[in-house]
Amino acid sequence: MGKVAPPVKKNEEIELVFEDITHEGAGVGKVNGYPLFVPNALPGEKALVKVIHVKKNFGFGKVLNRIQVSEERVDPPCNVYEKCGGCQLQHMSYEMQLDMKRKQVENTLRKIGHIEGIPIHDTIGMEEPWRYRNKVQIPVGSKNGELITGFYRQRSHDIIEDMDRCIITDETNDRLVEAVRAIADRLGISAYNEETHRGVLRHIMVRTGQVTKQSMVVIVTRKENVPELDAVVKEITKAFPEVKSIVQNINPERTNVILGRKTKLLWGEEYIYDKIGDIQFAISAKSFYQVNPIQTKKLYDKALEYASLTGAETVIDAYCGIGTISLFLAQKAKKVYGVEVVPEAIADAKANAKLNQIDNAEFFVGQAEKVMPWWKAQGLHPDVIVVDPPRKGCDEAFLQAMIEMKPKRIVYVSCNPSTLARDLRILEDGGFKTVEVQPVDMFPQTTHVECIALMSRVEE
Ligand code: SAH
């Protein structure tokens, strides 16, 4: 098979029937077994496709003309959907998005983890899968002497100039970004220019508490001294009573990283507050906080259900961030130990424990793979271990420590089915059994897949 030349040529136009969809949301159609990946094409569709790139075992194409249209196709409601690339699934019905995510979890667990024959539940979706993000960070540029704001065009650093809203973001955030832009423009604040490293205004970031409706505006500038900001503060606070905090962040570096080291409170409180379930969180400009609190609540309820706590258990929450899951679990556990590598996140976790008068949660700064063996050596015997690692999954040494600690249950929250599958395999080989898996749609309209798996220890 390897020696056979690809059956298509670059620039060739062919009729293609789509049978499948990739994890990135592209349609997959085959020519004599040779797959072509084509954006904006759905399974069941037929289209005239132009081949744009040919590789040995697969190629890429683009739709010239749709011949048969899927019933699952919907008109993307965003006017810049195809330029932006921030969303990848707006052309697909929400039902199909949820179904696709469930299938992705199922297939990945089978192929990579050899885990099958267990319940993989229907994806828990949103009733209203729009306007869910509580945070937006938008680059500022200029065009014809005017300030503009908008996300970058796909694979570029050109601002999409006709973007006046982002319909997966809280509406207040949209209005605040536009207000700051308009005021700054009127006051003559210049836009930062990446190439010359001159100009002032780099990004506008806004966060709004989903429950509390309190907003924080973060104005990211290249230099510290920007006298016009006083007037920006005055106008914003007058027009937006929901704004509780206005912060300047100074980022003097040549970098893609949005926030710089230094933040300066311009007006109001240093924190805004929000709630997930009964737990309150104080959020500063630099705090990590889940972007979709409605779905986060559903995810953590599931974590709590899978942990099945009675009040007598010792629980470890590894990769705990600002302690969101830990504090949720602490309500039902005897004791929760959280570990996280970012010191500022642990400071937030401790502050949030205090804020909620939770005194049975303790937080440690460190790498989970180093702290776990130390805990074990100290004689800590967790009944339940909850993990929520970054995309690359858990460290091998951490997994081994978990196996040796022999908890009754492991609850694994994952934002990447591939590393989840790899890690579940290791844990299964170490004496645990995967009981069930629940996908939860944290990021509607995008290809991100989040799920939660319950494992229990096989009795010897
Ligand atoms: N559970 C939290 C955050 C999960 S994100 C919540 O729901 O909000 C994953 C977290 O793992 C990040 O906060 C990241 O800083 C942390 N992390 C990454 N590598 C780590 C490691 N080796 N040890 C401990 N924490 C780590």
Automatic annotation (TrEMBL):
UniProt GO BP: methylation
Superkingdom in the source lineage: Bacteria
Enzyme's top EC category: transferase
PANTHER family reported in the protein's UniProt record: RNA M5U METHYLTRANSFERASE, TRNA (URACIL(54)-C(5))-METHYLTRANSFERASE
NCBIfam families from the UniProt entry: rumA
Keywords on record: Methyltransferase, S-adenosyl-L-methionine, Transferase
InterPro entries recorded: MeTrfase_TrmA_AS (IPR030390), MeTrfase_TrmA_CS (IPR030391), NA-bd_OB-fold (IPR012340), SAM-dependent_MTases_sf (IPR029063), TRAM_dom (IPR002792), U5_MeTrfase_fam (IPR010280)
Organism: Gracilibacillus marinus
Pfam assignment, any one: tRNA_U5-meth_tr
Residue positions binding S-adenosyl-L-methionine: Q290, Y319, E340, D388
UniProt-recorded Gene Ontology molecular function terms: methyltransferase activity
E.C. designation(s): 2.1.1.190
Residues of the active site: C415 (nucleophile), C415
Protein's UniProt name: 23S rRNA (Uracil(1939)-C(5))-methyltransferase RlmD
Family, similarity comment: Belongs to the class I-like SAM-binding methyltransferase superfamily. RNA M5U methyltransferase family.
Originating gene: rlmD
Chain ranges of the TRAM domain: 7-65
Keyword S-adenosyl-L-methionine listed: yes
